[in-house]
Design brief:
With about 1000 residues, the chain is an alpha+beta fold. It contains 25 helices and 40 strands. A hairpin with a 2-residue loop joins strand 1 and strand 2.
């Protein structure tokens, strides 16, 4: 215990264990007097085991100055014979530290070196959590390692782990408690040192590397690899014991995969496999990390990676797999076009609060249909006649190239060569021939021969379909389709055809009870962690018997919503995340002044009578919600779907303007309603390009099949989308229920940002960035700005200018429209989507300064909060009591989880704000990355009735919906804006000029929604 300025601090001690490492049960807690510089305990003075400390210092030379390491090593020799004290002597001294205390790592190192520390040198700073200190980084790093390594069982110590984001200030209390389970199971942390090795130095395919390692362990060097190691398929090899690689900890082996056969003339290929020791990982750092006493660093990340490789190793040897999922043929579905869906399992070791967890979820893999390659090709074309695969029979070159893109990279075997090459590896398809086997000629021994004749005369395999095309494999050989066999379990790594998306969704969608039962069945049959020799060899124990991890969640009350004057119920409180529009009028309804209807469905299928019924239904719905339609009888035109859409819409708009001028209302239309046929995606893109980019007029696309005899509720939903496009506001949160964002004394602006990247393989296409923000005090009106930047760059270069644009529009709207004297925001909440955990620091280093610069240039000083929104995860929830679920079987809308599965030290939470519809709802994961002591962390855990997490639910009532959304509305709007930015490329035009895009709708209000 260190006493200074009236405070007491717990100081960790260094104990005695094998190789200098301590077990959780052997903590020593010496008492140190700052004024005398002496240590003491119940039985008098004592000394540390400095030999253990010195061994640690040797490992930490890269983190600590050599002089400090030398001092520790020198001290160890003088104290080898120091008296040992039993830990039980100090069990009464294990007191928690003062809640605001922070012991300087530098002082801690001085104490460990037995150097007297007296005032003023013994400066014990009361550093607020998360704040930086001015101590050398290497001193702090080694001090943290000492704490984490030697005291894994001690409660939170005086030394604080450094966090990337905001340190968790506490846990939420608002809402009612809800008992749920999550798809995670508890695993222990290994109790042995993990040895990390680099495997291979050449660029080999992961499949070849795995085969080489297996051959090395089983045949080449079984005396070195006494127990199987684990390998990630790239370069990282982990072992639970020391590999005997010699004094240099590195050794090269010669490995032969395919031995030479008697008939072979060439010698077998010899692979050079080099194994080099990289590091030793003490798993105690994970104990310290999950208990909040150790900062995230390379050692922690490597330790987590090692555990992931351990649990994935066994399935990867038995089943087809990608990085984190593997797939079995226990449950499959043939969806046609040569694609078979396999059910699989995702697994990932993740740190939780106070424990390590394995997140297990179901996944879906797309596989090539196994069997003869001809059958696969026919299935792709959805044909049955094999002769259709012959160019001479009319196979178009366009279709051949489409099939080639589908087959490239597929592995095939050639059964006709089994007698001569029984162990031959599968061959990889490189491309398809442009001619049939009977027309492809090559030179063999000076004689020109066709491929078909070769297999008939040389291989004694006359072809059944000699006119069909051939595949060219990696070696350049041409093989007829009918002689190729597709092995089962080959993952198709291409985008699923759009027409098969529905089948994919149906197969992947499972209600929570079914999903969790499927995972449970997989844990007992396919996964079987207890039977894995890899899991056992690393000393891990996965508690599958205890089942899924139970969590006490909270169900937040939804905010009240306010509708316009004339509503029968002006203020409502949603139930189950949704509500209806019966007897409600928009908060601010805009007028449809001049409009026109353009139908791309044939007049035979969408007649004039049907069109008039459609207009009548829409006009009546507009009146019901408070929107005035000046012209109840607009122009209706039928256009050719194969024509030039932009010219057709321009002509329709001109006709509507001429009609309005004759009626005494000059001006162009402010709305174009477009009727689309089924499968009219290309027309839709052209319509949006014309309306959003070319002319700046609101467009509303409707499917003809939906319009036919539609009910009033359908037209009310259409009005929900039209009104915001014209500048209206459907509804606002009741200010009394969300005071945190509607407080007039603290005006708040909320922004959202995201980046969309081109598809893999796209050439010379840039990435698009977008920022969305509200401009009104009610957080109901949004604007957007977009930019183009370097392809596949995630950090936003032009964020400063984009934020300035949003802030200027915000202050302008509040000053000119709302007539507010205080137009500048005092709070700025910035939601960032699409950023992985490894990029959090980049957001703080690169993007946050740009936001601050934008505010400074406008002479604004808002309190900034940065929150990361994540959806690419596999965390799912299910209520323990089915009676607590909603109608879809999911957790009710407003379920929030900030315990058990969160970050050990940083402020994050999961929020399922939406009601379920199909399958199992996915909660959004929020990480508070930055906060300058504004309202968010404090309000969240205050005793106020309004939990700030309600803010996220409030703003999730997107301007076009009657439901809460699955994630923050800014994330949804940014995605819509980014889809708009791709239109010039979709339309194959050259209208992307410069670096800036702006919405050209009236007042640039966002709402590009069909």
């Amino acid at each position: 215990m260190c006493s200074y300025h009236g405070y007491s601090y717990l100081l960790p001690g260094i104990g005695h264990g094998p190789s200098g490492y301590r077990s959780p049960s052997s903590s020593l807690l010496p008492v140190f007097d700052c004024h005398s510089g002496s240590y003491g305990g119940p039985r008098g003075p004592l000394s540390f085991d400095f030999l253990s400390l010195a061994m640690l210092a040797e490992r930490e030379k890269k983190h600590l100055r050599n002089s400090a390491c030398s001092a520790l090593i020198d001290q160890s020799h003088a104290h080898r014979n120091a008296p040992k004290v039993h830990p039980s002597d100090y069990k009464d001294r294990m007191l928690p530290p003062h809640p605001v205390g922070y012991v300087s790592p530098h002082i801690f190192l001085l104490l460990l070196q037995r150097r007297p520390v007296c005032p003023p040198e013994a400066h014990l700073d009361a550093v607020a959590p998360g704040e930086a200190h001015n101590l050398p980084v290497e001193l702090h790093a080694v001090a943290m390692r000492i704490v984490g390594t030697f005291n894994p069982g001690v409660p939170p110590l005086a030394l604080q782990a450094v966090t990337v984001g905001v340190r968790r200030p506490g846990y939420g209390t608002a809402g009612r408690q809800l008992a749920i389970v999550t798809n995670s199971i508890v695993t222990t942390i290994p109790d042995t040192i993990i040895r990390h090795y680099d495997d291979f130095s050449s660029d080999l395919h992961p499949r070849i590397r795995r085969l080489l390692l297996k051959k090395l362990e089983e045949d080449v060097a079984p005396n070195i690899f006494r127990i199987k190691t684990v390998f990630d398929g790239r370069k990282n090899l982990f072992a639970s014991y020391e590999l005997d690689l010699g004094a240099s900890n590195s050794r090269q082996f010669d490995v032969i995969l395919v031995p030479r056969t008697a008939s072979s003339e060439r010698p077998p290929k010899v692979y050079k496999v080099k194994i080099t020791k990289v590091n030793e990982i003490n798993p105690e750092v994970l104990h310290a990390y999950v208990n909040g006493r150790y900062s995230i660093d390379e050692e922690v990340l490597t330790a987590i990676m090692a555990l992931n490789v351990v649990v994935r190793m066994d399935p990867s040897e038995k089943y087809p797999f990608n990085v984190r999922s593997f797939f079995t043929d226990k449950e499959i579905k043939n969806i046609g076009m040569g694609i078979v869906l396999w059910r699989g399992f995702f697994q990932s070791v993740r740190p939780g609060i106070g424990r390590m967890l394995i997140n297990v979820d179901i996944s879906t893999g797309m596989m090539y249909k196994p069997g003869n390659l001809i059958d696969l090709c026919l299935d792709f074309f959805e044909k049955q006649n094999p002769n259709l695969l012959a160019p001479s029979a009319g196979l178009p070159d366009r279709e051949r190239l489409r099939l080639q893109r589908f087959l490239i990279g597929l592995k095939v075997t050639t059964p006709h060569t089994n007698s001569t090459r029984p162990n031959a590896p599968p061959r990889v398809i490189k491309k398809l021939s442009s001619a049939g086997a009977n027309a492809l000629r090559f030179n063999m021994n000076g004689v020109t021969i066709t491929v078909a004749d070769y297999f008939r005369t040389q291989a004694n395999r006359p072809l059944r379909f000699p006119a069909n095309i051939c595949v060219e494999v990696g070696s350049g050989a041409l093989i007829p389709l009918e002689l190729c066999h597709v092995p089962a379990g080959q993952i198709m790594k291409k985008q699923i055809p759009p027409e098969k998306t529905k089948d994919m969704v149906e197969f992947s969608t499972m209600k929570p009870a079914e999903r969790f039962q499927s995972i449970s069945n997989g844990l007992s049959t396919v996964l079987s962690y207890g039977q894995s020799e890899y899991v056992r060899s690393f000393g891990m124990s996965v508690d599958t018997a205890a089942g899924f991890l139970p969590i006490t969640a909270r169900k937040l009350d939804p905010p009240k919503l306010k509708y316009g004057q004339g509503s029968k119920q002006p203020t409502i409180q949603p139930r189950d995340g949704s509500w209806n529009m019966i007897d409600k009028k928009f908060y601010k309804a805009e007028d449809i002044r001049t409009w026109v209807v353009v139908s791309y469905e044939s007049q035979r299928r969408f007649s004039a009578d049907v069109a008039k019924d459609m207009v009548t239904g829409l006009v009546n719905a507009c009146k019901t919600v408070g929107m005035r339609v000046r012209d109840p009888d607009p122009i209706i035109r039928w256009e050719n779907a194969q024509g030039r859409v932009a010219e057709q819409l321009r002509a329709a708009g001109s006709a509507a303007a001429e009609k309005a001028k004759r009626e005494g209302f000059p001006g162009g239309p402010n709305l174009i309603v477009v009727i689309l046929p089924d499968g009219g995606n290309e027309i839709y893109n052209a319509v949006k390009h014309f309306g959003d980019i070319t002319m700046g007029v609101a467009t509303q696309c409707l499917k003809s099949s939906k319009c036919y005899r539609a009910k009033i509720q359908y037209w009310a939903n259409v009005c929900l989308k039209i009104n915001p496009k014209l500048g209206g506001i459907n509804t606002i949160p009741d200010p009394a229920s969300v005071q945190a964002i509607t407080d007039p004394k603290n005006p708040t602006i909320v922004m959202g940002a995201d980046v969309i990247h081109p598809a893999p393989g796209s050439q010379e296409r840039p990435s698009f960035t977008a920022v969305v923000g509200n401009v009104d005090s009610d957080n109901a009106k949004y604007i957007a700005t977009m930019r183009v930047q370097t392809s596949r760059q995630e950090m936003i270069d032009d964020l400063k200018d984009m934020c300035k644009e949003i802030l200027q529009k915000y202050t302008g709207y509040r000053a000119q429209v709302e007539k507010q004297s205080q137009s500048a925001p005092k709070r700025l909440i910035f939601y960032r989507d699409g950023v992985s955990e490894g990029q959090f620091q980049q957001v703080l280093d690169l993007e946050l300064p740009l936001i601050k610069e934008a505010c400074a240039e406008l002479k604004m000083t808002p309190k900034i909060t940065v929150i990361i929104v994540g959806k690419r995860h596999h965390v799912r929830f299910k209520t323990q009591d089915p009676r607590d679920s909603d109608r879809s079987g999911n957790c009710p809308a407003g379920t929030v989880v900030d315990r058990e599965i969160g970050h050990p030290t940083e402020f994050d939470y999961f929020l399922q704000s939406h009601g379920g519809l199909l399958g199992t709802s996915r909660p959004a994961h929020y990480s508070v990355l930055y906060d300058v002591r504004g309202w968010f962390p404090f309000m969240l855990f205050s005793l106020l009735t309004t939990d700030p997490l309600v803010i996220r639910r409030t703003i999730s009532t997107l301007i076009r919906c009657k439901r809460f959304l699955s994630r923050y509305v800014m994330s949804m709007l940014v995605r819509l804006v980014l889809s708009l930015s791709l239109l010039p490329y979709i339309m194959q035009t050259s209208s992307v000029q410069g670096q800036k895009f702006t919405m050209t709708h009236q007042e640039a209000w966002i709402s590009r929604i069909p």
